[in-house]
Amino acid sequence: MLRKLKIKFVAVIMILVTLLFVAVLGLALFFTRQNMKQESIQRMQALLSAGREPAAAVPGRPPDPRLPFFTVELLLQGELSVSGGGFFDLSDRETLHTLVDTALSAHEPIGVIKDSELRYLVAPDRKRIVFADISQENAMLGHAVKNFLLLGLAGYAGFFAVSLLLANWVVKPVEQAWTEQKRFLADVSHELKTPLTVILTNAEMLSDPQMGEQEKQTFASNLLSTAGRMKGLVESLLTLARLDSHIISAQPEELNFSRLISNALLPFEPIFFEKGLELACDIEDDLFVQGDRQQLTQAVDILLDNASKYSAPSAPVTVRLRQQKNRCIFSVSGGGSPLSPQDQKNVFQRFYRLDPARTGCGSYGLGLAIAERIVCEHGGTIWAESADQTNTFCFSLNAARHSP
């Protein structure tokens, strides 16, 4: 599919470039030809109005070699008087009569005799005719056509190379999205496969009449817990899908971010206590942001939940909120294995886990991805840091000026 998309993109560009080159080169040739024709006619009119060679018409100026010409004057009894013509053989009177008859029989006073490559201009009294050679003009036009074609081919090849680069550049985000979509589908299938297998297995065991009541209760409990896990996974996927498609629209309001974080910490305090984690808080008072209360609370909950699941008991979990210039920075720090620079980026990918074996802790690998989407929707940035056996997850939002 991507290859066809690239081919279509290149084809569209080259069609447009072809039309552009044809139009530009066609107009260039047309105006070049018109200018040369107009210049030739003006010189012929000057010769005709002077009634003599240009050297005599304009004293001190030599005859123009760019306009080989001769003038024919019609005398009585059909005699012809020829002047000029240093570039022509005028000894053949029959040819002269043919040229004159052709010029006089034409409807227009200006025209071209193609066989002889001559342009003629008939005087209003039809007694004099100026003939000018246009072979040099035709040769110049021929050279111009060749040069324009060579220039067009060179430009065409250049645009073709550029279009290939542009196609790769334009299709690259599509290719990345396609790859991420395939990986996302594979991850979802993997995440759903295990609980579905557990559900099917327990359902089959429940349907076995030989099973006792105690075993059936165990299988029913497994079904409920596994179904609950699947429900949580599906809800997380729906949340991500809605955030990606902007179905969940933020309802911005001025929020006391300090109070929001303090309230979010309350339900997590017993969780940290049960796991033997020390919780330390450093929250500046009365810091305000513009945002959606529900979504920002969810983003804060995700970082706190992440710390409760993966922090080592050896170091306290520290929650901070501070203002730095015009930004409010929220961070949650906890002890644990240091994150590599690559992992600090990858943890915000969907279904990414530092330890793939840890699938039974209620984590789906989607929380940080949801938090990233929420923070980005609010014009903020989210990132991870690691130093001294401490991992820190942060996000920053624009600070709002509180209006009492």
Question: Can you identify the CATH class of the largest domain?
Answer: Alpha Beta
Rounded Rg: 44 Å
Distance between the termini: 57 Å
Helix content: 40-55%
Label the CATH architecture of the largest domain: 2-Layer Sandwich
Based on secondary structure, the structural category is alpha+beta
> Can you identify the CATH superfamily of the largest domain?
Histidine kinase-like ATPase, C-terminal domain
The description of the largest β-sheet is: 5 strands, antiparallel
Strand order of the largest sheet: 2-1-5-4-3
What's the β-strand tally? 12
Topology order in helix (H) and strand (E) letters: HHEEHEEEHHEHHEEHEEHHEE
Uncertain stretches of 5 or more adjacent residues: 52-63
Strand content: 15-25%
Q: What is the number of domains?
A: 3
Q: How many DSSP H or I helices?
A: 10
Shape: elongated
Mean pLDDT: 83
CATH topology of the largest domain: Heat Shock Protein 90
What can you see in these coordinates?
A five-stranded antiparallel β-sheet has the order 2-1-5-4-3, with helices on both faces. The protein has a five-stranded mixed β-sheet with strand order 7-9-10-12-11. About 3% of the residues have low confidence. It has ten helices and twelve strands. By secondary structure, the protein is α+β, with helices and mostly antiparallel strands. It is 54% helix and 18% strand. The longest helix has 72 residues.
From the structure above, extract its key features:
Helix Hairpins; elongated; Heat Shock Protein 90; 10 helices; alpha+beta; 404 residues
Describe the structure in brief.
With 404 residues, this protein is of the alpha+beta class. The protein contains ten helices and twelve strands.
